[in-house]
Amino acid sequence: MLTKNPAREKNDSSRSVFSVLGPGILYAASAVGVSHLIQGTRAGADYGLQLSFIIIIACFFKYPCIRFGGDYAAATGQSLISNYRSQGWWAFGIYSVAQIISMVFVIAAISLFTQGLIQVALNFEMNPILGVSLLLGIVTIILLTGHYRLLETVSKFIVAIFSILILLAVVLVAGKIDWSFSKFLLPPIDVPMLLYMVAMVGFMPTPTDASVVQSLWTCARAEEKGQLPSPSDAKLDFNVGYIMSVVLALCFLVLGAGVMHVSGTELETSSVGFSRQLIELFTETIGTWSFPLISIATIFVMLSTLIAVVDGMTRVAVGITESVLKEPSEKLYNIYLGVLILLAILTLATMLKSFTIFITITSVIVFVVSPILAFLNHRAMWSDRVPKDLQPGILLKYWSISGILFLILVTLTYLYFLLVNVS
Predict the structure, then answer these.
(1) 263-277: average pLDDT
(2) 1: which DSSP letter?
(3) 369 contacts 96 by C-beta, under 8 angstroms
(4) CA 38, CA 260: separation in Å to the nearest integer?
(5) CA distance 423 to 419
(6) pLDDT in tens, 48-90
(7) Spatial separation of the C-alpha atoms in residues 344 and 79, rounded to whole Å
(8) What is the Cα–Cα distance from 370 to 376, expressed in whole angstroms?
């Protein structure tokens, strides 16, 4: 039985900030993966500093929606999935169907990129399906033996080390970049450019469904410790992770701008080719001596991303099932973990050549669901389940409403131009 601990609200100098961090760092670890490494770097390589403002705007408007995951769990001891069920079958159904369709493709995509990165870093070649199978096998063992505690501990150190390396690289590359105001102005807007910017908004720093995983991780950490975090601890934890994710997104954009955009390098489309360029981006900036260090760091950061995503998707599947059955089961996690791993491998084995089609479908789902989840999370935080004294203030309330309207506009824009291009 989870309990609230009033003492946690007091200033306790014996507790370090590092000890408070947990789900927020897992959020940063999951964010640094494909959306940052690929989207951020690609934005800088293609457009220099011109999309910096787009990243900042996206992160600003998404903040309330994603933060509400940890806030709700800290206030109620339950995940957002349970709240969606209480809001009605329409809310629960929309979320559940979207997640069930997309979760396997998300795991498959991140696995494919990670195994390509490992091949480049360790300089060997392997069939991608075999590589993904071995990689997901390792992830399964880690999650089954270490559970949440190991996931959190490993992620803390990996994110900290990788963040230091990225900041060092940015400092070294800063002198190659023209920082004049004109370089931050948006490029000429046409349909492809608009779709590109809208896609950046959708995936930066993460899609809004990360809020649900945040609530599940908060509950998992509370189960480990036997008590809920205080609202102030939950807020600090999330803010540190979120700010890190925003800063790192901008750092990857700067690295892409300083190394690839300046030299006119064209980005590879394959996972192995892009992985090679990504590692070269660091080694060209810091020095060739850093190749072993960068290789190990990138392997571990993508591995932590993959572990966090697989764990998060598994917890989502368990949460959906338990909300229907109204009865928790410890066996469900192991069952769903195995099922999702096998489906991800099977998906790549049978659909690798047409995999981009399914990634596009997943992207559409992300955009359609984003404003809906923002609306549901807003309702959750101001529902009867959250005590009045733990509900956000008036500023965050209107910030949340602004975010919902922003995501509606972005989604409609994306769908309109996507349909125009298709037709």
Answers:
(1) 70
(2) -
(3) no
(4) 13
(5) 6
(6) 899 999 999 999 999 999 999 999 999 999 999 999 999 999 9
(7) 25
(8) 10
CB atoms within 10 A of CB 165: 17
Residue 34 — pLDDT band, cuts 50, 70, 90? low
Tokens of 174: 């800063």
pLDDT tens track for 92-105: 999 999 898 888 88
Size (the chain), residues: 423
Q: How far is CA 33 from CA 133, 153, 188, in A?
A: 19, 18, 29
Specify burial of residue 124 (Cβ count, 10 A radius: 0-12, 13-18, 19+): exposed
Over the stretch 121-178, which tens digit does the pLDDT of each residue have? 888 888 889 999 999 999 999 888 876 777 777 777 777 887 888 888 888 888 888 8
| DSSP character string of 4-34 | --GGGGS--TTS-HHHH-SHHHHHHHHHIII
Classify residue 232 by burial, with Cβ atoms within 10 Å: 0-12, 13-18, 19+. middle
Provide the sign of the torsion angle of the four alpha carbons 265, 110, 241, 13, taken in this order: negative
Residue pair 282/256 in contact (Cβ under 8 Å)? The answer is no
Q: How far apart are CA 160 and CA 163, in angstroms?
A: 5
Spatial distance between the Cα atoms of 373 and 390, rounded to a whole number of angstroms = 20
Q: How many CB atoms lie within 10 A of CB 192?
A: 10
Q: How many CA atoms lie within 13 A of 262 on its CB side?
A: 17
Copy the structure tokens of residue 379.
């309702």
Q: Quote the pLDDT of residue 345.
A: 94
Q: Is 216 exposed, middle or buried (0-12, 13-18, 19+ CB in 10 A)?
A: buried
What is the residue whose two structure tokens read 């080719």?
Answer: 273
Q: Could you tell me if 245 and 27 are in contact, meaning their C-beta atoms sit under 8 angstroms apart?
A: yes
Residue with structure tokens 């809310």?
A: 91
307 within 8 A of 143, measured Cβ to Cβ: yes
d(CA 392, CA 386): 10
Tokens of 7: 């003492």
Q: What are phi and psi of 67, to 5 degrees?
A: -65, -35
